[in-house]
Amino acid sequence: MPAQAPGKYYGSEPRPFPNELLAFSWAALAQELGVTEDGAFNMAWIAVDRHVAAGRGERIAFRFLGEDERRSELSYRELAQLSDRFGNALTALGIGRGDCVFLLCERRCELYVAVLGALKIGAVVSPLFPAFGPEPIRNRMAQAGGKLLLTTSSAYRRKVLPIREQLPALQHVVLIDDLGAGPQAATLDWDSLLDAAPDRPALVPTAAADSALLHFTSGTTGTPKGALHVHQAILSHYATARQALDLQVDDVFWCTADPGWVTGMSYGILAPLAIGATSVVDVGDFDAVRWLTLLEREGVTVWYTAPTALRLLIKGGPGLFAGRHFPALRRIASVGEPLNAEAVAWAEASFGQTIRDTWWQTETGAIMLANTQSAKPGAMGRPLPGVVAHLVRRRGDSAVDGLESPEMLGEKGEEAVGEAVGELALETPWPSLFRAYLGQPERYRACFAGNLYLSGDLVRRDADGDFWFVGRSDDVIKSAGHLVGPCEVERVLMAHPAVAEAGVIGKPDALAGATIKAFVTLKHDVVASEALRSELLAHARRQLGPAVAPREIAFAECLPHTRSGKIMRRLLRARELGEPEGDNSTLE
Ligand code: ATP
Ligand code: MG
Question: Which of 80, 315, 530, 588 could join 561 in a cystine, given CB atoms 3.0 to 4.6 angstroms apart?
């Protein structure tokens, strides 16, 4: 792979969106998805039953791959029928519109059936990450007043039984009997419930703006927030999967995120279903060999994953790829963390495919920016059709003052242009924009200024109009009069051949305000040494200049990540400074 100057295009040439993607309107899209004007709008119908009605019921919706190599498939028709049964069972239990249904189990068939069944009857679905312990489960369910929980017998015994008394709103617990232990007191059995339920359509006429999904954020910067989404969000899932992932009906799609995170719901369930594609679902956790084998053997065509997983593959060394071929793979996309240019070059050498970064948040519900039109390695890309992004600076010191009229950076207008660094702000509304932070109306209001949603992420827009991640507002370091985005420093460290991953924090300093410390993990065959430390310090100083380069570098075995794969800089900071660690519920 020839070395390329940063910022130059390589891999695929910049590609404009096809006209049909540019000329879309939300109304036209709704029509395309079969939404009629009677006001009824249900995302589960769009995702599943619509395909059955159109004669595509025999297509495979999900292909499940078990730990033990067992495979099973679920067609659109089967998914429609099973979700009807579960929806009817919920109705019989007195669960209805607006009631919150929690799901706590690994990525198995029942989870997918339950999501769609609950959506059909207008319940609000909140999937929990399956590795959560009792406290994060209790906390989230208590906040939302969850009325029903679907889980496995094993998870119930270990995690739910100890806290069940503390959840007065919880009326029913449905168990998938993974232990073969038979009935447990005060619970219902999944199989019996489904067997007894009628298989007539369960659909109720929900409206586009009815609540549908409750997702908790990753907790990277603090206590996770519950973000509420509505049925029409599926319009965004559908449009963005086509625009940013190029997902088509014939694709074999693999989204590696768990549905406990918004990515695993929006793109692991709803988007590929809305499109009518086949999704591969792997029950196992990350394992380099298993993942590469899966990509190869299942003929995955579109792969949506995260930088953390990619970096683990890089760390595994080139030997992992010996004798492997990925002829079916035609698109790789990434989300959740900055994607460094070296990872993109690595993918081009290893998979013969570039990686397209995508940026979005739990709050935005769907991809907003993507490296689709331009393929600048290291950039997040540009706003998707229908998305208008600005860079702003909040005025005044207090967040509220600043919100009154944030200063627009660069030129204003339909297409903001010009180089600038500022907080990424998006013009509202769009279908998958969140409608509330659970129990925190003030905090919700504080995310908006006029018609703008303020993302809390600092971003640089270059002269071509490509956006680059700088850092979260919370992580930005003020050092000797400079504002330093940790990602700029991390990007430079990761460009060194010895470094696998880097996490950068500010340490309070009487003189400079803060000094910069970096924690780095090394590639598989590299040994930490004083000489390497000096080399990395010098490399960073050369690239960044002395004001922005780290003063200290520590070698680490691994960095603290959220379970959704984000570096938790606030934990690096708290540990370094001996401060309380705060909410750790999402720590991997
Ligand atoms: P919390 O809000 O609880 O602190 P979180 O923001 O990490 O957690 P998510 O909604 O899962 O929770 O993550 C969204 C954030 O992830 C974005 O605001 C951004 O900081 C980061 N992110 C997402 N995509 C990218 C990307 N392509 N490049 C850089 N950062 C990204
Ligand atoms: Mg966030």
Answer: 588
pLDDT in tens, 107-145: 999 999 999 999 999 999 999 999 999 999 999 999 999
461 lines ligand 1 (CB under 6 A): no
Ligand 2 centroid from CA 254, angstroms: 24
Coil, strand, or helix at residue 232? coil
Mean pLDDT of 556-579: 92
Q: For ligand 1, is residue 569 a contact (CB within 6 Å)?
A: no
Do residues 312 and 558 touch, judged by C-beta distance below 8 A? no
Region for residue 34 given its phi and psi (left: phi exceeds 0; alpha: psi -120 to 50; beta: otherwise)? left
C-alpha span between 406 and 428 (Å, rounded): 15
Ligand 1 near 378 CB (within 6 A): no
Q: Is 156 in the pocket of ligand 1 (CB under 6 A)?
A: no
Atom of ligand 1 nearest to the CA of 472: 20
Nearest Cα residue to 430 out of 389, 387, 381: 387
Long-range contact set of residues 543-547: C-beta below 8 Å, sequence gap at least 24: 543/492, 543/495, 544/488, 544/489, 544/492, 547/479, 547/480, 547/481, 547/482
Q: What is the spatial distance between Cα 28 and Cα 328, in angstroms, rounded to a whole number? A: 32
Does the C-beta of 359 come closer than 6 Å to ligand 1? Answer: yes
Closest ligand 1 atom to 469 CA: 29
- pLDDT of 312-364, one tens digit each? 899 888 999 999 999 999 999 999 999 999 999 999 999 999 999 999 999 99
- Contacts of residue 300, defined as CB under 8 A and 6 or more positions apart, other chains included, come to 252, 253, 254, 280, 294, 326, 328, 329
How many angstroms separate the Cα of 204 from the Cα of each of 89, 118, 119, 163?
Answer: 14, 11, 9, 33
Atom of ligand 1 nearest to the CA of 456: 18
Which atom of ligand 1 lies at the shortest distance from residue 216's CA? Answer: 3
Q: How far apart are CA 91 and CA 172, in angstroms?
A: 12
Pinpoint the alpha helices (H) of 105-215.
Answer: 109-120, 134-144, 153-155, 190-196
Residue 379: what pLDDT?
95
pLDDT above 70 covers a percentage of the chain that reads 92
Other beta carbons within 10 angstroms of residue 327's beta carbon come to 9
Give the mean pLDDT of 170-188: 96
Question: In the prediction, which pLDDT does 18 show?
Answer: 59
Torsion, CA 148, CA 205, CA 143, CA 447, rounded to 10: 150
Q: What is the mean pLDDT of residues 24-49?
A: 90
Q: Measuring from atom 27 of ligand 1, which residue has the nearest CA?
A: 359
For ligand 2, a single-atom ion, the residues with CB < 5 A are 217
**Against a cut of 0.70, is the pTM above it?**
yes
Distance (Å, rounded) from C-alpha 49 to C-alpha 546? 60
Full 3-state SS string of 269-298: HHHHHHHCCEEEEECCCCCHHHHHHHHHHC
As a whole number, mean pLDDT of residues 383-387 equals: 92
313's tokens? 């593959």
**In the predicted model, is pLDDT for residue 13 greater than 60?**
no
Q: Which pLDDT value is given to residue 221?
A: 86
Residue whose CA is closest, atom 13 of ligand 1? 361
Residues 74-94 have pLDDT tens digits of 999 999 999 999 999 999 999
Q: What is the 457 CA–ligand 1 centroid distance (Å)?
A: 8
